[in-house]
């Protein structure tokens, strides 16, 4: 499952295809080692990266990578080689989408986190379960596959974030599945079924049982160490975290602790006369609970009685938003973030979410668009056009415009330079002009036999060549002297020598004037001043 295998029709239908793996190892980020690992490194699951058996939950992991890229603009793992990317899929936790795009709703982030679980057993059990949670997210309902705290936080904001991406409802004239059919339709009213879990058949031999016994002993030792040394903030296992105690901490401190552990704080405010304002007095799950990474931890923060309703300033300019919030008594903390669909200076998000009562002493963070993200133009000089085009595409730039240009220094077919030049920062939709060498400039040698010397020299210079003159007789050239031969011959196409590179006429003189001469020809005929000119 990857973007290259997902087609969207003009009417909004989404079709999944699979054209298979066609390229050999060493090109792009394809891994095609037969019998071991097959797929595209950026989108395959940890079990694929390790050459282990796969099942439909591997496709759900790949779908999580695609959704992550849809909301952030890049895959969760990037590297210099397919092997480096594969290692990250196995060993590293994916970044939170909100760390790249703060506008991603927390509930959608939780769905992505479960899709990207390293352990297949911790992912959604089936694609039907994923579809159910995504539909509930779009409708602002609590999720079933992940913590309900995120979905309950701001259903209207979540629905608005993805409303533009929703496909149109099917009509009688436009069925959702026509010629491309993946599986029988599931009735919308039917309850989601628990998907069957997949397990690799055990190898029941003495070595397996011995290894299992050693593993259980080691696990018991770890649990005993945890019991004796405390577990606050301890990572309980791959993809899980032990929730720390953040009661009586300030909102900012509690938020930072949770985020550093890979958890997502969901903050609500409540008047509490027994607790100082801006302190956490309730959390769910409580301290010591073991949860998945990227799970939501609901915090209740004490609110003073002078709390006021937080106005919605999303869509206003930074100046207008600051004025509105200051007039309401709030302190504003602006941050910048790129946005492809909002002009620079427009507020694209705010924390806490608007339209709720908030302490006046709580800072309000507004996220302001800095405009489209800028990309540095890579240096593609000396590359073939196909390789240069791929290099531009890898950093997110569109296909370039090609211009041919003669060059005596760069081999034909290779890139000479780009406009804008390499290192320039441009928007991701900027079309780069790529100048490609078509080899040295050439021209046809003009016919000059029969012309006077001065006329012949001028004709040769006009074509960009340098004339070299041989005189049949020493001394002053007669005005009536005519060209009797030329080399190269007329209408041949030698490499053109630019006048600017070799200025002027090489001239004539005695044998010691410093110029190399071709085989001299003389004519002692009646004219006495006949000239042969070699271009």
Low-confidence stretches: 20-38, 147-204, 230-237, 497-535
The number of helical segments is 13
In which order are the strands of the major sheet placed?
Answer: 6-9-7
In one word, what is the shape?
elongated
Strand content is 15-25%
| Fraction of residues in H or I helices | 25-40%
- Cα-atom radius of gyration: 37 Å
Sheet with most strands:
3 strands, mixed
Rounded to the nearest angstrom, the distance between the terminal CA atoms is 65 Å
Quick check: average pLDDT? 74
Instruction: Say how many strands there are.
Output: 21
User: What is the SS-derived class?
Assistant: alpha+beta
Fold topology:
Elements: E1 6-8, E2 14-16, E3 30-33, E4 37-40, H1 46-49, H2 56-72, H3 82-91, H4 97-100, H5 106-115, H6 127-138, H7 148-153, H8 155-162, H9 206-229, E5 240-242, H10 251-260, E6 264-271, E7 280-284, E8 290-292, E9 296-303, E10 308-309, H11 318-327, E11 331-337, E12 347-351, E13 357-358, E14 363-369, E15 374-376, H12 385-394, E16 401-405, E17 415-419, E18 425-427, E19 433-437, H13 453-462, E20 468-471, E21 531-534
Parallel strand pairs: 6-9, 11-14, 16-19
Antiparallel strand pairs: 1-2, 3-4, 5-8, 7-9, 10-13, 12-14, 15-18, 17-19, 20-21
């Amino acid at each position: 499952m990857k973007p290259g295998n997902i087609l969207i029709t003009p009417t909004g239908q989404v079709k999944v295809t699979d054209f298979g793996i066609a390229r050999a190892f060493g090109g792009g980020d394809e891994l095609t080692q037969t019998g071991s690992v097959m797929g595209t490194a950026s989108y395959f699951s940890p079990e694929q990266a390790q050459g282990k058996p796969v099942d439909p939950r591997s496709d759900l992991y790949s779908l999580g990578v695609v959704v992550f890229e849809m909301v952030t603009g890049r895959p969760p793992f990037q590297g210099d080689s397919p092997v480096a990317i594969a290692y990250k899929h196995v060993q590293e936790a994916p970044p939170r989408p909100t760390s790249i795009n703060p506008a991603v709703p927390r509930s959608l982030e939780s769905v992505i986190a479960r899709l990207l679980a390293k352990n297949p057993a911790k992912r959604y059990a089936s694609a039907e379960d994923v579809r159910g949670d995504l539909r509930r997210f779009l409708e602002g309902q609590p999720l079933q596959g992940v913590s309900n705290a995120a979905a309950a936080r701001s259903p209207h904001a979540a629905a608005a974030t993805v409303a533009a991406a929703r496909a149109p409802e099917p009509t009688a004239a436009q069925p959702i599945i026509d010629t491309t059919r993946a599986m029988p339709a599931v009735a919308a009213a039917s309850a989601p079924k628990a998907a069957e879990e997949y397990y690799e058949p055990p190898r029941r031999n003495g070595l397996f049982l011995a290894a299992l016994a050693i593993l259980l002993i080691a696990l018991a030792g770890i649990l005993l160490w945890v019991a004796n040394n405390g577990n606050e903030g301890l990572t309980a296992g791959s993809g899980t975290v032990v929730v720390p105690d953040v009661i009586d901490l300030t909102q900012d401190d509690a938020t930072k602790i949770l985020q550093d552990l890979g958890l997502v704080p969901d903050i609500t405010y409540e008047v509490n006369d027994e607790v100082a304002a801006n302190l956490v007095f309730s959390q769910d799950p409580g301290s010591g609970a073991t949860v998945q990474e990227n799970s939501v931890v609901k915090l209740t923060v004490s609110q003073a009685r002078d709390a006021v309703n937080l106005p919605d300033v999303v869509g206003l300019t930074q100046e207008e938003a600051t004025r509105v919030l200051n007039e309401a008594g709030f302190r504003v903390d602006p941050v910048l973030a790129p946005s492809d669909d909002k002009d620079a200076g427009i507020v694209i998000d705010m924390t806490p979410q608007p339209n709720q009562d908030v302490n006046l002493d709580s800072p309000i963070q507004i996220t302001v668009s800095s405009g489209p993200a800028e990309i540095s133009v890579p240096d593609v000089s000396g590359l073939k056009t196909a390789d240069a085009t791929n290099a531009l595409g890898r950093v997110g730039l569109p296909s370039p415009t090609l211009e041919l240009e003669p060059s005596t220094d760069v081999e034909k077919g290779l890139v000479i330079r780009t406009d804008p030049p390499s290192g320039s920062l441009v928007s991701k939709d900027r079309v780069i002009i790529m100048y490609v060498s078509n080899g040295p400039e050439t021209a046809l040698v003009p016919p000059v036999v029969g012309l006077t010397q001065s006329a012949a020299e001028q004709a040769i210079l006009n074509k960009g060549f340098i004339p070299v003159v041989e005189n049949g007789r020493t001394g002053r050239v007669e005005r009536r002297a005519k060209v009797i031969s030329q080399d190269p011959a007329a209408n041949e196409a030698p490499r053109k020598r630019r006048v600017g590179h070799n200025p002027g006429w090489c001239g004539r003189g005695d044998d010691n004037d410093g110029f190399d001469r071709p085989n001299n020809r003389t004519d002692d005929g009646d004219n006495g001043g006949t000239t042969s000119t070699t271009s």
